[in-house]
Structure prediction request, 675 residues.
Amino acid sequence: MTGFTTTESLAAYMPEQNIDTDAIYPARYLLLMEREGLGPYLFHDRRFHGDGTPKEGFILDLEPFSKAQVLVAGAGFGCGSSREQAVWALTGFGVRCVIAPSFGEIFAGNALKNGLLTIALPEEVVARIGAAAQRGARFRIDLEECILCVDNEIVATIDLPEGQRMALLNGWDETDVLLQEEGDAISGFETRHRMAQPWLFQGST
Amino acid sequence: MGRTLYDKLWDSHVIRSYDDGSALLYVDRHLLHEVSTPQSFIAIEKKGRSVRRPDANLAVPDHVVSTTNRHLPIADPLARAQTQRLVENVARHKIPFIPLDDQRQGIVHVIGPEQGFTLPGITLACGDSHTSTHGAFGCLAFGIGASECGIVMATQAIRQQRTKTMRVNLVGLQSPFINAKDIALAFIARIGANGAAGHAVEYAGPVVAKMSMAERMTLCNMSIEAGARVGLIAPDDQTFDYLRGRPMAPKGEMFEHALTYWRTLPSDADAQFHRELTLDVSDVEPHVTWGTSPEDAAPIGARVPSPEDLTEATRRERRRRALAYMDLKPGDPLEAIAIDVVFIGSCTNSRIEDLRAAAAVVAGRHVAAHVKAIVVPGSGLVREQAEREGLAQTFLDAGFEWREPGCSMCVGMNGDRLEPGQRCASTSNRNFEGRQGVGGRTHLMSPAMAAAAAVTGRLTDVRKLMGGKP
Ligand code: SF4
Prediction:
């Protein structure tokens, strides 16, 4: 995956609460088995009529916000289904960071695996920077310094567990890391676990 | 100090703890379906990795499969290809598989417990948010994304942040026709679709103790709709009785050995939860949703609420949008809402107990003339049992369609979906915009309530229909 260090861009504001992953990526496109090129399906049914013609007025289709790499949203962003396509569609569209009071937990975990930064901030702060986003403020997010600036003013520090921050900065493949660094620990645990709860290993040889 | 069930499950699976409060957890079980895993296998194979413990996995197609004409290939070429991809992937990696034409096939969250793949004390992951269902057995079960499915298959481990704990005490008397679904909707309406975010929710109290395993699964299933990734219920004798003799559960002496351990799992008497709340179910009425979030739920006797009742602008706007999408007017009685379709099924409510509850309502009655009503059992075994018990015939006599198992109309990605503008009384779990098909309108409710709606053609208080007092 690609790492995340900094990004600087306009931000699109969707103040609505509980924007679910069905809205972000409708279920019928889960039949596609790719993970690349899903940007066109992002918020599909809010952006397009049934016949494929565009609907007017969706924020990510309005200039200048169609180029926004930052999305500011209401609480519960990404709740609902675990579909990682919601994240792939966002990154495919060019979104690199979502700021909201809270996130669907599975969505936030998926984001992390794909270099999409999620920043949870108090509701008042999100409302304030959302209003700034609507005015066309520049957002700058620096994950090395752990700061979020809006029009050059630091508005928040980014408080992320260190493991997640390092994974994002470096764009590591988590499976590689686990197998290299924890392979022995996993095997050791497995042996002890097998002794303690042998019924969980009855199918293994 | 005592530990909660969650603490015990967590502690017993920690491979390594990290300074930032996260831990690497061992994953005992992984359930796979066709939709969540194509990209996971690509990721595994691109790096030439293998599946660490094939026997710790179980795969089944459910989401995109057809619920009619099973003797024919799946009509949609994309759905057919995705199902076929699962067949090939599991064959290459020697993962235990239940094929589409197998009697045991069904929705992952129905077949896991049914086969005894789900057990107390384990960690269980699946690329599906309703994996919370399995927590009804006293295990740590949670939904993951496709990348994580690949990580779990390759390493048998997953890095997680420890969450806070919440205990929901269900007290009082559960009246007839009040189902776990009503209680879940009442709970979500109270705390909000995001209200339990960051928490593992343990349901406890005398009401839970008396609930069937099916009702417990309904309750845990809906936890994700309150924002909680994990739902939990302490295992008890009913849990153990359910599991005894299941094909993949331990047998004989090994079962007794496991039992000794499982009995240590319930939260200790002095365990502390981060949050605790009590819900008196004596006051819970049959619930239906009127909006586009599971939190938009109300007792059937209520009226469609007004956006103007809300002071906060974005919430008001959200409600306006929901009512516009649902084509409902503030002040309309919920009981006056006419429906076009009834769906009884999904991992929330497609078990034999659910079908019995629905059949009891439709017996001797008929589906309203303008309504299309389908029953989709959660698995082939549920279907078979329902046929044995005569429930299938009851449904057919009443004018329902009796389908083959699968996710069906819970999610608009297989042959079963709503047409734009159609309104559905549904026993599924999500009423999001477009969830059951583009432009489709969903009202969530219990199986008995959906059955009542089928009969009258509108949202109905099942207690009135059955001659009881509302
Ligand atoms: S029945 Fe619905 S909620 Fe359950 S697994 Fe299938 S699609 Fe998901």
About this structure: The longest helix of chain A spans residues 174-196.
